[in-house]
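Worked Example 4.2. Consider the chain below.
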Amino acid sequence: PQHVVLYPLVSKSLRNIAAGKDPLEGQRHCCSIAQLHEHYSLGYPDLDELQKNPQPLIFDIEVLKVEAPGSYQQDPWAMTDEEKLQAVPRIHKEGNELYRQGKVQEAAAKYYDAIACLKNLQMKEQPGSPDWIELDQKITPLLLNYCQCKLQCEEYYEVLDHCSSILNKYEDNVKAYFKRGKAHAAVWNVAEAQADFAKVLALDPSLRPIVSKELRSLEARLREKDAEDKIRFKGIFSQ
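Applying the procedure from the previous section yields the following structure tokens:
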């Protein structure tokens, strides 16, 4: 048995890792004793109780699997800056392969990890500096891939936010206009969708067949919605 005063914080970090989160999420840059006093709750009742009443602990460790040398893939939070930069192309490729297999949610998670690596590096650069811009230009295609996954998952407002953030910096990004147009159309922002599709055509007229298809689909949905509304309102006024 071993009396471990700081174990609740360690356990919280391990649980964050198991959930795919940053192990230091919610912690501030201070010593462990200060952390203990500063956290009213660790988010887990059993850890809160152990923090209030420290007790001797017995640890049972079970080996679940053995990784072959070189096969273990670190989570982004555990990588050095150089490892993050080297990992991005690999993670991007894995995301593309998952997307081709139709595993959209898993692909989105891969793109998110790659973006997180680059965002972490970008935070250390002066905004607008050459290095910051270079990293941002690597983030943009990953973010567009992520938005494509979110379109298929029908998470349209997230697509609107991300595409708008891209277009605030890169006003000529055709893919961002197109994906934002599709998201606007999906949530019945008709004027905004039409404006985005018009911008797509202005930037790349060769995309007219694709844009025309999207506009026809939007018009058909609008007619269908109008017909449904007429039936619904007719029933209301006839009562």
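Residues 28-38 have pLDDT under 50 and may be disordered. The CA atoms of residues 23 and 57 lie 22 Å apart. Compare this with Example 4.1 before moving on.
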